[in-house]
Design brief:
With about 325 residues, the protein is an alpha+beta fold. It contains ten helices and seven strands. It has a seven-stranded mixed sheet, with helices on both faces. A hairpin with a 2-residue loop joins strand 6 and strand 7. About 25% of the residues are buried. One of its GO terms (cellular component) is plasma membrane.
Length: about 325
């Protein structure tokens, strides 16, 4: 579907406009053309009607591209990433920003684009609304996309807090699985947010985009949001690494405690086993075999020896 929104010179917004009306019409100061889940026939309008560069069109049709900005003679081409909060999968959004038009192209319907579209229509008579040119509308789209990153990051931070509280009640195996799951999700977010941050930094420091200078403060605000998100992700990744190391150390300490217990038990029974082994060989001429109190005496010696070894180990601090 192709939908068109036209902004007149007195800042009124008109929708449901035919594509042919905006080509040579002096009525509109600028227009926003949104390719929402376009068909192959509609996608051909990028080359036949707008005559965009073939490489830019190829980037639109071949998903997923890394977030980037390309500069052409009469327009700028941006590749953006929206985020599916459920699967943390990225959805590509392409923007062509010219002096009199904004063209958005996306293969999946996005609530962020719809919200900006509705906001533009509702504020059609607001002359104080600063969104009066394609760059302003592009800012609103990018800002809305970036705002949708925050809930996913905040959700992971909440899970990390819960994970720290459950450290004493859950098994190490369960905790480790949860930590690695969180690290995997953080990696997905990082692959989306960091390239978007780098792209926004390039826009802010570019001399090619003239319209961006008028709204530099707004684009700088988006960059600050992305910078905050990337710092949060790096902090969360460090926290998961610390939790992972803590759980590994905890598991190692538990294993050391188990091995210490088994070692003490084995050490205590070694001399007892030696005594039992010697007197269990059943040779005829072994001493004390015919002694009436030999059995009870050997048991007493074994008990005293075991008790003495336990007390000696305790004095040496083996049970601490």
């Amino acid at each position: 579907m192709i939908r068109i929104l036209g902004v007149t010179h007195d800042h009124k917004v008109e929708s449901d406009i035919a594509l042919e009306q905006i080509k040579n019409s002096a009525k509109y100061k600028w227009s926003w053309i949104d390719f929402n889940e376009p068909t192959p026939e509609e996608s051909e309008q990028l080359s036949t009607f707008f005559q965009f560069h073939p490489l830019a069109i190829e980037d639109c049709l071949m998903v997923l591209q890394r977030p980037k900005v390309d500069y052409y003679e009469e327009y700028q081409f941006l590749v953006l990433h929206a985020l599916d909060p459920d699967k943390l999968a990225t959805v590509e959004v392409n923007l062509f920003i010219g002096s009199t038009y904004l063209v958005s192209f996306h293969h999946h319907s996005l609530t962020e684009i719809d919200e900006v579209w509705e906001a533009m229509e509702k504020r059609s008579h607001d002359r104080k609304n600063w969104a009066r040119d394609p760059f302003a509308a592009a800012y609103m789209v990018i800002d809305k996309l970036v705002d949708q990153y925050f809930p996913s990051v905040y959700s992971i931070e909440d899970e990390l807090d819960d994970l720290e509280k459950k450290g004493a009640s859950e098994s190490v195996e369960v905790l480790m699985n949860q930590v690695f799951d969180l690290r995997g999700r953080l990696l997905k977010l990082r692959r989306t947010i960091v390239p978007m941050r780098d792209m926004m930094y390039r826009i802010l420091n570019s001399q090619h985009i003239q319209g961006e200078k008028e709204h530099r403060a707004y684009f700088a605000d988006i960059y600050d949001h992305l910078l905050k998100l990337s710092e949060m992700i790096e902090s969360d990744r460090e926290m998961t690494a610390d939790l992972r190391d803590s759980y590994i150390s905890l598991n190692s300490n538990r294993m050391n405690g188990i091995m210490k217990t088994l070692t003490v038990i084995t050490t205590v029974f070694m001399p007892l086993t030696l005594i039992a082994g010697i007197y269990g060989m059943n040779f005829q001429n072994m001493p004390e075999l015919g002694w009436r109190y030999g059995y009870a005496t050997v048991l007493l010696i074994m008990a005293l020896l075991g008790a003495w070894m336990i007390l000696w180990f305790k004095k040496r601090g083996w049970f601490k």
